[in-house]
Amino acid sequence: MKCSVAFSLFALASAEIAVATILTGTSVTTSLSSFNLTKGAACACGRLSRTYDGIISPNSANYTVQAADAYWDVRADLSPACIFLPSTADEVSKALEIFQSCDAHFAVRGGGHMNYPGSNNIDGGVLLALEKFKDIKVKKGSVEVGPGLVWYDIYKALEPYGRAAIGGRLKTIGVPGLSLIGGFHYFNNKYGYAMDNVVGYDIVLGNGTQITVNKKSHPDLFWALKGGANNYGIVTKFTLKTYDIPKVSTTIQVFNESGIPDFLAAVCNAAKLDEKDPIAAGMVATVQYNATTKVATASLLGVQEGISQPPSQFANFSAIPSITQINNVTTMRQWASSLDTPKQMFRVMFSHKTMKPDHDALVSIYKAWKEAVDQIADVEGLYPTFVTNVASAGAARVALTNGVGNVWGLEAEPYILWQFSTGWALAQDDLRIEAWSRQLAERLHAINVEKGIASPFIYMGDAGEWQDPFAGFPAENVARMRTIKSSYDPLGVFSRLNWGGFKLSL
Ligand SMILES: Cc1cc2nc3c(=O)[nH]c(=O)nc-3n(C[C@H](O)[C@H](O)[C@H](O)COP(=O)(O)OP(=O)(O)OC[C@H]3O[C@@H](n4cnc5c(N)ncnc54)[C@H](O)[C@@H]3O)c2cc1C
User: What residue stretches are annotated with the FAD-binding PCMH-type domain (predicted)?
Assistant: First the structure.
């Protein structure tokens, strides 16, 4: 797609005041949409372009690549007034000083996988894309990684050392977003969530100050960054723990519709598994339904540390008659290499809720979802998936015993996070799909509440934009997060100017 630009932003940017005055209210049309250029954006884009080379404007050749192609969800494609790709923490710091002094609205993008508009992109504001932060330093027991990396990069760098980190399960999920919101990996049951494995953050605060945060230095912020998302600053380096896991045992299994109730029973059993000396093991467990052919299938991607073959922790799945079962012993890098999540495939709506592992209730949810999908079978490009994630007691126990904790405050109990991930093709169906997905999730959750098996916990990585994850954290944790925010972001840069994503309310 070629940009059609009604107005060239930088042609007139001879001086900051002039830019602000001349461009206020100017309508800019990009390949993606139109926006009115605000005084703040004109000021910030003008100052950035006078300070740094390579600021991308709506008429730059690579504008669409940055404003659209870098996003997973087509709905996240927006029209920033300009795009800055910093390559050092000093440049991020300078940018934040500029945003603050210009009162400019901005968005931050890591791997671009958060799936809703505004969480990582912005219409008419400044987009800060972190893709140049690609440094990786493997150390003894840890690895330092930049926020421009995806998880495959980390697994690849660690492979020669026989080490593994706790990150994303698929290849191209971004390191920063996942680490800041929690992080479901295969090995949570033994090592905790990705956030529990971050031992240090280099972060730039809203006023441009750069600090290093760890258990000893700024321990309050260290805790708040474990699940606190994009509420505190921009992380320019994560230091992650690594583990001695040279090989993994994997299984890919596909089941036809008659096996789905047993498949969901195996998911419940996997959630409840809580051994004294656990073997690290976990999965991606999904049900796909084709509303045209009326055929449902379930699939399991299971990974376990070590070389036990077939992987012992998936015996409950392996006992179900399957269409496909492929077991293998490989490395984390090799496994992740084939699990790409291509960007720009569709528009996507997530809705998710949490429950105790209850087989009958989970099967009822699956059946209700399938019936509900039939009601929207006419939607163009419909791609409905029912996803389950398990939050085991062992995973919560890591934060309960490591002397740090995290903002989730989950007790050592098993839970199942159930999610509708719905893809479709046309913008005209956006509101319909949101209403459908939201109403269905809320109705089924209400039944679980009535049965006493619902949890208020909401994971940001599985949630729709209509959901409030903070409402599911313990109230005292949210109060503490607010106190910490008021001391590290007193001017509210990460709520007032960077307002997209899951934000602690003011
Ligand atoms: C196909 C797919 C598969 C997924 N698989 C998993 C999985 O296996 N496990 C799991 O836990 N989750 C998973 N998720 C959810 C995923 O973790 C979140 O979407 C996460 O936010 C992605 O991180 P990102 O860097 O790619 O996202 P981005 O969209 O770039 O960022 C997410 C949020 O973090 C902010 N942010 C980004 N970088 C920084 C930074 N350096 N400092 C401060 N804020 C920043 C952004 O502004 C945005 O609000 C998956 C999502 C998708 C779409």
Answer: 76-245
Q: Please report, for the chain, the start and end positions of each structural domain, with discontinuous segments joined by +.
A: 16-129, 136-244, 248-470
Query: How much is the pLDDT for 341?
Result: 85
Closest among 447, 380, 377 to 418, alpha carbons compared? 447
| Cross-strand pairs, 239 | 144, 200
Q: For atom 6 of ligand 1, which residue has the closest CA?
A: 168
Which residue's alpha carbon is nearest to atom 21 within ligand 1?
177
Atom of ligand 1 at shortest distance to CA of 71? 29
Q: Is 183 near ligand 1, meaning CB less than 6 Å away?
A: yes
Architecture of domain 16-129: 2-Layer Sandwich (3.30)
- Ligand 1 lined by 71 (C-beta under 6 Å): no
Predicted structure pTM score: 0.95
Please write the tens of the pLDDT for every residue from 100-123.
999 999 999 999 999 999 999 999
The neighbouring-strand residues paired with 144 are 137, 239
CB 238 within 8 A of CB 200: yes
Residues 6 or more apart whose Cβ sits within 8 Å of residue 88:
236
Contact of 229 with 502, CB cutoff 8 Å? yes
Atom of ligand 1 nearest to the CA of 461: 15
Give the residue, by CA position, lying nearest to ligand 1 atom 33: 177
Q: Give all strands (DSSP E) within 192-279, no chain letters.
A: 198-204, 210-214, 234-241, 243-244, 248-256
Q: Read off the pLDDT of residues 460-501 as tens digits, 9 standing for 90 and up.
A: 999 999 999 999 999 999 999 999 999 999 999 999 999 999
How far, in Å, from the CA of 76 to the mean position of ligand 1? Answer: 13
Decide: 227 in ligand 1 pocket, CB within 6 A: no
Give the C-alpha separation, 347 to 71, whole Å: 11
Residue nearest to atom 42 of ligand 1 (CA): 234
Query: Which atom of ligand 1 has the smallest separation from the CA of 341?
Result: 1
CA distance 246 to 164: 7
The vertex-189 CA angle with 184 and 192, nearest 5°, equals 60
**Residue 92, both tokens:** 């991020």
CATH code reported for the domain at 248-470: 3.40.462.20
**Per-residue pLDDT at 186 exceeds 50:** yes
Which top CATH class is 136-244? alpha beta
**In sequence order, what are the residues at sequence separation of 6 or more whose Cβ sits closer than 8 angstroms to the Cβ of residue 155?**
164, 165, 167, 331, 332, 333, 336
